[in-house]
Amino acid sequence: MKIVSVVGARPNFVKIAPLAQRFKEREFTHVLVHTGQHYDYEMSKVFFSDLNLPEPDQHLNIGSGTHAVQTGKIMAAMEKVLIDETPDLTVVVGDVNSTLGGALASVKLEVPVAHVEAGYRSFDMRMPEEVNRVLVDRISQLLCAPTENAVLNLMNEGEKRESIHFVGNIMIETLLLNLEKAHESAILTSLKVTEKEYCVATIHRPENVDNSQNLKTILEAFSEAPIPVIFPVHPRTKEAIVRFGLEKLSERNVMMIKPLGYLDFIHLLSMAACAVTDSGGIQEEALVLQVPCLTLRETTERVETLRAGANQLCSVDKKRIGACLVKALEKHPVFEVPLFWDDRVSGRIADVIERADFAIPGYSML
Ligand code: UD1
Positive or negative CA dihedral for 16, 74, 146, 337? Predict the structure, then answer.
């Protein structure tokens, strides 16, 4: 069995780590392709070392660009890789432009695609990630779903039952496998903060950072939060803060730092009193770490986090963010972890791949 897997952006690295290990154990021939969507040390390289990921076999050096340029360049470069490598299967993870570019190039060459994290839906097609999720699922042959609700979403869209596999949440496997190591991090000491006496914030979604009013509101809310806010700043967000001249707003109560590596971030998150984010994965990691989360979005595809009482959706309104923060800091019951958010997800995915019979005529057809 020869597998090409495609990663490009920060959350992809976290999701591929346990799979790369499992593919090695099962003696699959694994070609790891890094598209180069994320390229800074803090956005890419540190994740490879923190997660013991092998060096990518191929690096496409795509870099930044508009969605069409970035996705188009990924497709063209991936086509070449797939023609050279002739894999039995392409594995794509998550919902970023590298996921879509890799999946599209693959199906057009009739190489079957496995999508890890299939079936998440925010039902908001204004989100680039939602467009990526819907399209990638539609063209994938193996749909590896993280939750029971994701399975239902896929069935409601008319996907064949035999294509859908409930395997669990791969991001949580990575979290559980690395938690002990993460707790060795000295990040709290170096930031001079105390356990449960700060909030950790990450913001990078276009609707929050490319809109000066929303970004201003968020930074004002952080500066008025009841506890200090540690804010690792995504490059896109940093650029927007400078462009809109909002640097001064975050001087009070907010510690702006560079994006953190995986282990430091997980330790910082696990020791926080609460998390404020617009990321997808952090909503899930916070639940498992029993850290209440505030998500600065109107919708979430991670509905289990809401059902567990671990997450609140919060629109960008200063009063509302303040009120949600107060609520998040109240004492809370233990959040129940959804089924299969455990440390055996990559094994289930490898089983699904081993059992799949790609020799069936038409298997790779849409
Ligand atoms: C991407 C994903 C998003 C994911 C996020 C995680 C898509 C559509 N979006 O968003 O789902 O949550 O990654 O971080 O794929 N930049 C750098 N250095 C880097 C990478 C990016 O400076 O290493 C800057 C560039 O100016 C770039 C901007 O960040 O224009 C945005 O990068 P891009 O990869 O297009 O999207 P993200 O916002 O990171």
Answer: positive
